[in-house]
């Protein structure tokens, strides 16, 4: 496998200062100073401003224990971060204080905002449309012989399939496996849901964000049309590998595996198993916990909620049977890494990608790929300072961009 050697070492201060300088220079290129981005920036500021003055009591207490800073000092720093750097008000504590052995001096390392921005900047290439469009992505994978979930049907709002035709297409699978539907360009499970049908032709529709409906197909079709904001795609409701389903048989488990391009070689950077909570239909955002996967041993570490809390809870066991996370070996991990690398090779211009991979009982398949995959959860455990190869690759490519 093309993976980073253990003990690659922490980034030296000179490297981190260099990458920080490049990140700042990239931001000053003006590529994100359009009217749209200005409006987006203003909207972000207004929506986050209340969290500056009214952070959760738990966050304030945790930050005080960790740094010794009181409420007013925290408010001032959160306001500076939001105003001057457009950062999430809580991100300073995540990046600078959560792992004191890796972030001993906050100013010595690139912060999450700069890392996320630089990754976003380097990935702005024409081929990113293929990572955003789930239909084009599925077609690309099929063309290249990469295993992915088939698209059974599509519901286009401009030229929608008639009620009868769509019902006939999806009914056989809805009765056996069940169906999962999601927006063509949707993110984090918004607009996604599950459809099933029993032998009496009674349908059940459940949205990932809440809401369940039962009735005949005509009612389901009407609900889909009323709530659909963009084209929907329908795919089989996949079943996790039996070993993973033990964690939570009623929800979803998938792996987010990050790869990056080191000169001409695609390397894995890190991986995280995402476990849906309760009966959640998606394993994104608030509806999941994440457990890092050690790339060498292929085993899980402790988990944490996918949240921007200052000190995410360390989760040792998960599921109705309280299965231990740490030490659990992920099935088909080598095949999963090979699949992620093969997918990345189909995008020669993109520096780094986050692949969502589902593991069935007979191996992995790729669900989708994201060119903007950053989240504070990846900083919590792994720490940017431990990925010297990734940092060197960013510096090399960024220099070629002539910022």
Structure in words:
- The protein has 403 residues and is an alpha+beta fold.
- The chain has three domains: 13-123, no CATH class; 126-148 and 240-371, D-amino Acid Aminotransferase, Chain A, domain 1 (2-Layer Sandwich), CATH 3.30.470; 153-236, no CATH class.
- Helix content is 38%, strand content 19%.
- It has 14 helices and 14 strands.
- It has helices at residues 13-27, 35-53, 57-67, 71-85, 91-97, 112-122, 129-132, 134-143, 163-176, 217-227, 242-245, 333-345, 376-381, 388-400; strands at residues 153-155, 179-183, 193-197, 203-207, 212-215, 232-236, 253-262, 265-276, 288-293, 304-305, 317-318, 323-324, 352-360, 363-370.
- It has a six-stranded antiparallel sheet with strand order 1-6-2-3-4-5, with helices on one face.
- It is globular.
- 38% of the residues are buried.
Report a brief summary of the structure.
Pfam families: ATPgrasp_ST (PF14397). This protein is an alpha+beta fold and 403 residues long. It is 38% helix and 19% strand.
CATH architecture of the largest domain: 2-Layer Sandwich
| Shape designation | globular
Oligomer: single chain
Uncertain residue ranges: 1-9, 95-109, 376-385
Order of helices and strands: HHHHHHHHEHEEEEHEHEEEEEEHEEHH
Termini separation: 33 Å
The CATH topology of the largest domain comes to D-amino Acid Aminotransferase, Chain A, domain 1
Secondary structure: helix percent: 25-40%
């Amino acid at each position: 496998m093309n993976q980073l050697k253990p003990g690659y070492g922490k980034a030296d201060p000179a490297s981190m200062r260099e990458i920080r300088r490049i990140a700042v220079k990239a931001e000053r290129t003006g590529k994100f100073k359009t009217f749209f981005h200005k409006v987006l920036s203003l909207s972000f500021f207004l929506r986050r401003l209340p969290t500056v003055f009214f952070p959760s009591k738990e966050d304030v207490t945790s930050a005080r224990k960790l740094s010794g800073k009181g409420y007013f000092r925290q408010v001032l720093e959160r306001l500076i971060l939001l105003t001057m750097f457009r950062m999430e008000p809580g991100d300073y504590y995540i990046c600078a204080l959560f792992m004191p052995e890796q972030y001993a001096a906050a100013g010595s390392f690139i912060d999450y905002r700069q890392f996320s921005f630089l990754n976003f900047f380097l990935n702005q290439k024409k081929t990113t449309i293929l990572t955003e469009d789930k239909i084009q992505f599925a077609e690309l994978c099929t063309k290249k012989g990469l295993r992915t979930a088939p698209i059974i049907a599509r519901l286009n709002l401009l030229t929608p399939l008639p009620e009868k035709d769509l019902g006939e297409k999806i009914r056989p699978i809805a009765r056996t496996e069940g169906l999962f539907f999601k927006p063509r360009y949707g993110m984090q499970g918004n607009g996604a849901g599950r459809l099933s049908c029993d032998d009496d032709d009674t349908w059940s529709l459940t949205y990932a964000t809440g809401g369940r409906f039962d009735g005949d197909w005509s009612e389901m079709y009407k609900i889909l049309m009323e709530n659909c904001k963009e084209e929907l795609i329908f795919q089989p409701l996949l079943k996790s590998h039996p070993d993973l389903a033990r964690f939570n048989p009623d929800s979803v488990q998938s792996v987010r595996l990050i790869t990056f391009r080191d000169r001409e070689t695609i390397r894995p950077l890190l991986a995280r198993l995402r476990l849906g909570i309760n009966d959640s239909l998606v394993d994104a955002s608030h509806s999941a916990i994440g457990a890092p996967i050690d790339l060498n041993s292929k085993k899980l570490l402790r988990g944490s909620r996918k949240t921007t809390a200052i000190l995410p809870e360390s989760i040792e066991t998960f599921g109705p049977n309280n299965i231990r996370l740490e030490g659990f070996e992920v099935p088909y991990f080598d095949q999963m890494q090979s699949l992620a690398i093969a997918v990345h090779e189909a995008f020669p211009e993109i520096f780094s990608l986050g692949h969502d991979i589902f593991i069935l009982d007979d191996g992995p398949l790729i669900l989708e790929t994201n060119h903007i995959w950053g989240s504070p959860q990846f900083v919590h455990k792994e720490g940017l300072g431990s990925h010297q190869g990734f940092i060197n690759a960013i510096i090399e490519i960024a220099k070629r961009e002539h910022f």
